[in-house]
Amino acid sequence: MRKTTLIITALFTALLLCGVAYAENGIKLTNTAQKETIVTKEDGTKEVVLEQPDKVLPGDTIVYTIMYENQGKDTAEKVAVNNPIPENTLYLDGSAQGVGTEIRFSVDNGATFDFPGNLKVENPDGTERMAGPGDYSAVRWALGSDLAPGAKGSVSFKVKIK
């Protein structure tokens, strides 16, 4: 059985784009964006609801979910899903999720990825400082195991509209 190594970039840069993409090795990606709204129920309890918004405003929280599925005939190994953080948004710290994945971030538009404690950015005066969530420009989820034919899963993150 042939195995392939694959890094997938979800190039969905429009703010509320929902779409499907295929990698060359049969990995299907589906990207959705939903507005997170907190509603008060009749009994006074609050509930988080995800909905497809008609419009978004500064301060709104958007949840991006990227679903992946190996539709190829071969097992894919070392699969990573990359997704840019859309312009005019701010990544919400701790919101990246993905069962069985290793999550890293980029501060250079996806050229390199690392764990948050290792990321640095340059200040206007040329000095360096530790990067924070507001500096992140992309997220990478590296799957912890091979992706067999037919296997699927999902990863997600949240942003706030600036």
Compose a concise summary of this entry:
The chain has 162 residues and is mainly beta.
What about the largest sheet?
6 strands, antiparallel
- Which structural category do the helix and sheet elements fall into? mainly beta
The general outline is: flat
Helix content, binned percent? under 10%
Mean pLDDT: 87
**Tally of helical segments:** 0
Order of helices and strands: EEEEEEEEEEEE
* Spatial extent as radius of gyration: 17 Å
Strand element count? 12
CATH topology: Immunoglobulin-like
First-last Cα distance: 48 Å
Strand content: over 45%
Provide a descriptive summary of the structure in words:
- The chain has 162 residues and is mainly beta.
- It has one domain: Immunoglobulin-like (Sandwich).
- The protein is 0% helix and 51% strand.
- The chain is built from no helices and twelve strands.
- Strands 2, 3, 4, 5, 7 and 12 form a six-stranded antiparallel beta sheet that branches. The protein has a four-stranded mixed beta sheet with strand order 1-6-11-8, with no helix packed on it. It has a two-stranded antiparallel ribbon with strand order 9-10.
- Strand 2 and strand 3 form a beta hairpin.
